[in-house]
């Protein structure tokens, strides 16, 4: 008998097959384990001003958890084993993806922080070479020392007149000046207020950063952008200011290098000149590369230095230990001139400052410059802790929350204690980059890590050698502004007092 001609038997077989298929699918679904739901994206929106506190509270309850969103699952983890899996072991499955790219591209374009694949590999390769050259390293040390001395002069004037100063504002200006010199080879001089365009650029850059992060919790941002209203209308204006300023510098530099017969210009140490020395001179590409360098070198360093000064003010004994070390190692007691002292700070000198390195690292543990970082899952996966991840899920690790977890750092995790990074001989002992995630890890580990430490150490050494820092309001508890990088909300007002250098 032809069973296909027997409709009753065929229907019965089809029903059995369907039931077996459904049973098989349900069994496989049951095998999957999903992280507990801890809230929704709307909870993030309601807690936006204290977003990292909110996420730390959730992480204390669930090492890995989910937030529900209308468009995708959002999975947050503070488990170092998961972090290593995402950032290293299964790196290819967790990239920026179109979701992150669309949010970030208006500010950062196709820079290294927004792209995957060949574009990322190309920029990573070129940038890795540039940051490793002795020419750029030596050039940056000179620039950092020069701008640290210039900042010291401003602080000296404030100390003489007993004025309070916003150390975060000055740090932002100082690192912006440094990065423009290192990246573009131009004197911005925003510390002295001589560049009105530079000031507008800096304000626009900070505002655009905040509005970019807000897109992660604003499900209507694409509609606002299409209609050119609200925060997206402001975002458009801010990015235009940024682009106009950067393109102007790039075009000027290209014209100068093309028209000049002086071949020494082709040997300039700044990053833009070195990129132009090759074949790449597309202004849009250069804009994206240079803005990525600026956001990496300006915001992260300035915010870290601001939090560092805040913590030293709250812990004067640590401030004293840092000063004792730098005076012992830098031979600074008899050098009264800021610039002369800065010139003595070679890489070898600052590398020997183990306690200073520990104090900066401890600052980054508590106040990481980039408090959260998310990746998009490319294909269905299972994390080492057993939780399933689906294609298209946003998977986020949380440096801010991880730095506060007692299960990772002990019962004193909420205390500022640089000694936790030192062995019995006072030598710095690094931790796993999957536990201390301030610089990412794996193939995307921050190329400018040593660059940032170098700038922070030089600024700290010059300023702390000559000045004692105190909060203008010693009872103040600093809070962050929720943006891509962890700025102190409202700045940091401090008093500076001259130290005795004899």
In short:
The chain is an alpha+beta fold and 502 residues long. The chain is 56% helix and 9% strand. It is built from 20 helices and 13 strands.
Total count of strands: 13
Tally of contiguous helical segments: 20
Assign an overall shape.
globular
Question: Strands across the major sheet, in which order?
Answer: 1-2-3-9-6-4
Computed structural class: alpha+beta
Question: Rounded to an integer, what's the Rg over CA atoms?
Answer: 26 Å
Query: CATH topology, anyone?
Result: Cytochrome p450
Q: What's the oligomerization state?
A: single chain
| Named CATH architecture | Orthogonal Bundle
Could you tell me the mean pLDDT? 86
Structural description of this entry:
With 502 residues, the protein is of the alpha+beta class. The protein has a single domain, classed as Cytochrome P450 (Cytochrome p450). 56% of the residues lie in helices and 9% in strands. It has 20 helices and 13 strands. Strand 7 (381-382) and strand 8 (388-389) form a beta hairpin. Helix 7 runs parallel beside helix 20 and helix 10 (221-227) packs across helix 11. The N and C termini lie far apart (109 Å).
């Amino acid at each position: 008998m032809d069973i296909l001609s027997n409709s009753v038997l065929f229907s019965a077989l089809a029903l059995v097959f369907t039931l077996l298929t459904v049973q098989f699918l349900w069994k496989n679904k049951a095998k999957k384990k999903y992280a507990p739901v801890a809230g929704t994206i709307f909870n993030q929106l309601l807690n936006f001003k204290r977003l990292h506190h909110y996420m730390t509270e959730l992480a204390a309850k669930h090492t890995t958890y989910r937030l529900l969103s209308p468009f995708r699952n959002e999975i947050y983890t503070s488990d170092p084993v998961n972090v290593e899996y995402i950032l290293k072991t299964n790196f290819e499955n967790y990239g920026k993806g179109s979701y992150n790219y669309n949010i970030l591209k208006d500010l950062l374009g196709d820079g290294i922080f927004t792209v995957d694949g060949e574009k990322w590999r190309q920029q990573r390769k070129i940038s890795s070479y540039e940051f490793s050259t002795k020419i750029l390293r030596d050039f940056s040390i000179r620039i950092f020392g020069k701008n640290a001395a210039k900042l010291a002069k401003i602080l000296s004037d404030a100390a003489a007149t007993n004025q309070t100063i916003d150390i975060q504002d000055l740090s932002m200006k100082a690192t912006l000046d440094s990065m423009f010199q290192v990246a573009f080879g131009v004197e911005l001089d925003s510390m002295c207020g001589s560049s009105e365009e530079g000031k507008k650029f800096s304000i626009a850059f900070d505002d655009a950063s905040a509005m970019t992060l807000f897109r992660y919790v604003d499900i209507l941002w694409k509609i606002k952008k299409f209609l050119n209203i609200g925060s997206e209308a402001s975002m458009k204006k801010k990015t235009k200011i940024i682009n106009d300023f950067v393109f102007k510098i790039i075009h000027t530099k290209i014209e100068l290098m093309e028209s000049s017969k002086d071949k020494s210009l082709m040997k300039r140490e700044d990053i833009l000149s070195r990129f132009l020395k090759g074949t790449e001179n597309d202004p849009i590409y250069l804009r994206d590369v240079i803005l990525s360098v600026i956001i990496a070198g300006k915001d992260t360093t300035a915010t870290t230095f601001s939090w560092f000064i805040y913590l030293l003010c709250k812990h004067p004994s640590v401030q004293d230990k840092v000063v004792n070390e730098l005076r012992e190692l830098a031979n600074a007691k008899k050098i009264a001139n800021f610039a002369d002292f800065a010139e003595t700070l070679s890489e070898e000198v600052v590398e020997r400052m183990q306690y200073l390195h520990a104090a900066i690292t401890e600052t980054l543990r508590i106040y990481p410059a980039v408090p959260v970082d998310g990746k998009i899952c490319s294909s269905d996966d299972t994390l080492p802790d057993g939780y399933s991840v689906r294609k298209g899920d946003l998977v986020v690790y949380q440096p801010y929350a991880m730095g506060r977890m007692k299960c990772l750092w002990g019962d004193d995790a909420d205390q500022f204690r640089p000694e936790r990074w030192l062995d019995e001989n006072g030598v710095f002992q690094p931790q796993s980059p999957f536990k201390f995630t301030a610089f990412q890890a794996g193939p995307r580990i921050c190329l400018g890590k040593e660059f940032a430490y170098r700038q922070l150490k030089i600024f700290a050494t010059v300023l702390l050698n000559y000045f004692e820092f105190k909060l203008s309001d010693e009872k103040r508890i600093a809070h962050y502004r929720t943006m891509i990088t962890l700025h102190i909300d409202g700045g940091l007002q401090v008093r500076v007092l001259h130290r005795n250098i004899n």
